[in-house]
Amino acid sequence: MSAIIGQRVFTAGGNQLYLSLLKDEYIRQLSISNNWTKIGIGLLYSIGSNFDILGFDWRIGMCSYGTPPQGIYAWSTTNWIGTFIPGNGVGVFTYTAGAGAPYIAVTSGGVQTNLNIRRTGLTTTLGSAFSTTINLPTNNGATSLRRGILILQIAKGTSNYTITGSGSLSVAQAQTDFTFEQLQEATQQVTQPAIVGQTTLTALPASGQVIACSETPGILDAISIAWKHSVVPLEIYGIAVYRYY
Fold first, then answer.
1. Which of 78, 122, 217, 232 has minimal Cβ neighbours within 10 Å of its Cβ?
2. What is the distance between the alpha carbons of residues 217 and 220, in angstroms, rounded to a whole number?
3. What pairs with residue 72 in β-bridges?
């Protein structure tokens, strides 16, 4: 629907450009193609909201680039694997006005808040469901703007791929502004949850889950970041991709 470039001023780092997604998918082909066994995708992001959000999903993963690229939101997807938050699109992102540094709490009353997914053609395969609460930074507040970290790791296997990762998902971490240098530091750590300075990030709820996958339908040579809400934007301040092996 819409992807724009904007700019905000942060206490740490000053002017920062961002990519804003509204009901859109960002796909970027990697120079290493599918020459990886375990890869990490790191995002530096913020949620553009000061109110509760209902009914959308946020998906991060690897896909086949193709001509044209066919990501998770394509009518027919060549090959895609990753995770999505909050799961089935009906979870609630609750705006919490916390002490000058408000954040979004992903609460859903039993709805999956992190669910691994694989899609090929018109067929979607889901991993096991998890119910939990995670917290995400917003782009407003009396103290300062904040950027959060989210890291997704995918490891290839013979018939099952393993998904792990972590992020600044606790309340205190969602109220902290992280930098691109810290994103790079965290993404390069093969062991998750990553450690940034003296802060240990929070494991993704489905961390360590396996899901059936292969590259037979198409090689996994591109990253995919998809955000389905048409009113509230996802602001991306940095992307880090790291091949562990």
1. 122
2. 9
3. none
SS3 label, residue 10:
strand
Beta-sheet pairing, 92-96 with 123-126? unpaired
Sequence-distant (6+) residues with CB within 8 A of 148 are 44, 45, 46, 136, 137, 167, 168, 169, 173, 174, 178
3-state helix, strand, coil in the chain (%, to 5): 5, 50, 45
For residue 235, give the nearest of 11, 8, 21, 41 by alpha carbon.
Answer: 21
- With a cut of 70, list the residues of the chain below it in pLDDT: 1-3, 11-13, 55-56, 86-92, 98-100, 107-114, 129-131, 141-144
Query: Which H helix or E strand runs over 181?
Result: helix 180-187
SS3 204: coil
Residue boundaries of the structural domains of the chain: 25-227+238-243
Contacts of 62 (CB under 8 A, 6+ apart): 39, 41, 80, 81, 82, 154, 220, 221, 222, 223, 224
Tell me the pLDDT tens digit for each residue of 32-76: 999 999 999 999 999 887 777 776 678 899 999 988 888 888 888
Longest dimension (CA), the chain: 51
- CA-nearest of 227, 213, 95, 218 to 154 is 213
